[in-house]
Amino acid sequence: MEYLARISGGTVPRKQSGPQLTPLAIAVLALLEENPMHPYEMYQLLMNRHEDELIKVRPGSLYHTVARLAEQELVLAEGTDRAGNRPERTIYRIRTAGREALRSRVTEILREPVREYPIFNVALAEAHNLPVDEVITLLRERVTWVDARITEYEALRDWAASREVPRRFWVVIEYVTALSRTEAEWLRGFVAELESGELSWEDFDPVTSERTSAPSQPTLGHDWGAGLTEEDIAAVRRGGAG
After folding, report:
1. Half-sphere exposure of 9 (CA within 13 A, CB side)
2. Could you report the per-residue pLDDT of 36-46, keeping only the tens digit for each?
3. Residues 106 and 167 grouped into a single domain
4. Is residue 230 part of a domain?
5. Which residues are 91's β-sheet partners?
6. What are 22-73's pLDDT values in tens digits?
7. Residues contacting residue 115 through CB under 8 Å, at least 6 positions apart
8. Which residues are in the Transcription regulator PadR N-terminal domain (predicted)?
9. Fewest CB within 10 angstroms: 25, 145, 158, 238, which?
């Protein structure tokens, strides 16, 4: 929703100053910053470290990413490794340019928020197309799922802390835990509003699923964002209603 980004002041993703680095490419370069290794070892480490909680990790995409980094001259194939009767595996190491690209990209991401498009936001914006009882049931299920993730994150945090792993290596666990707690708290409040009827909702026929009535609407409705002007947005940012 463009108007939400306009109100919040979200920024349009800028062209990266260096080579284009995907989240998986960042992870690969970070691994090679530790030690030279072959792609299969990278995959094992990412999975063992639960990095799949942060990025999408697939063997095929990882091999493709490594090849792409080699084409960009950010990593260098420097030898092979063989374990038993397994095929030889190419070992890669990070180049100076790769190290610089890694640090530059991390710096950019830390410095300035970019507009992202979580799919849940889309579903929440269009939830009014479902009957209220169904929305309540679905969001309760989501809260249960989020709570389970929080439990897992807390277990990971406690495990790392108990083994005196330097906190800088797992501070991201604290961050995603905080985000998940906030989501669960908001969803519980939203469900409570729906259950109590405090938040008005359209009625749907239980057989045909067609809308049977709509709650009274103010001047603006579903397309309220289309009525926003730059003056309105400026007023919102100043703290006024416009």
Report:
1. 7
2. 999 999 999 99
3. no
4. no
5. 79
6. 999 999 999 999 999 999 999 999 999 889 989 999 999 999 999 999 999 9
7. 5, 10, 11, 12, 13
8. 28-103
9. 238
Q: What is the pLDDT of residues 176-195, one digit of tens each?
A: 999 999 999 999 999 999 99
Pair (105, 141) in one structural domain: no
- CATH number, domain containing residue 88: 1.10.10.10
Report if residue 91 sits inside a domain. yes
Q: Which residues contact 81 (CB under 8 A, 6 or more apart)?
A: 38, 88, 89, 91
- Determine the distance from the C-alpha atom of residue 21 to the mean position of all C-alpha atoms in its chain, rounded to a whole number: 16
Which regions of the chain does DSSP assign to beta strands (E)? 75-81, 89-94, 203-204, 211-213
pLDDT digits (tens, 9 = 90+) for 125-180: 999 999 999 999 999 999 999 999 999 999 999 999 999 999 999 999 999 999 99
Residue with tokens 């889309």: 122
Q: How far apart are CA 194 and CA 188, in angstroms?
A: 10
Q: What is the pLDDT of residue 216?
A: 59
Total tally of structural domains belonging to the chain: 2
Q: Are 183 and 105 in the same domain?
A: no
Q: Give the span between the Cα atoms of 29 and 104, in whole angstroms.
A: 12
Between 114 and 81, the more confident residue is 114
Contacts of 61 (CB under 8 A, 6+ apart): 24
The Cα–Cα gap between 90 and 84 comes to 15
Q: Give the C-alpha separation, 126 to 135, whole Å.
A: 11
Residue type, 120: F
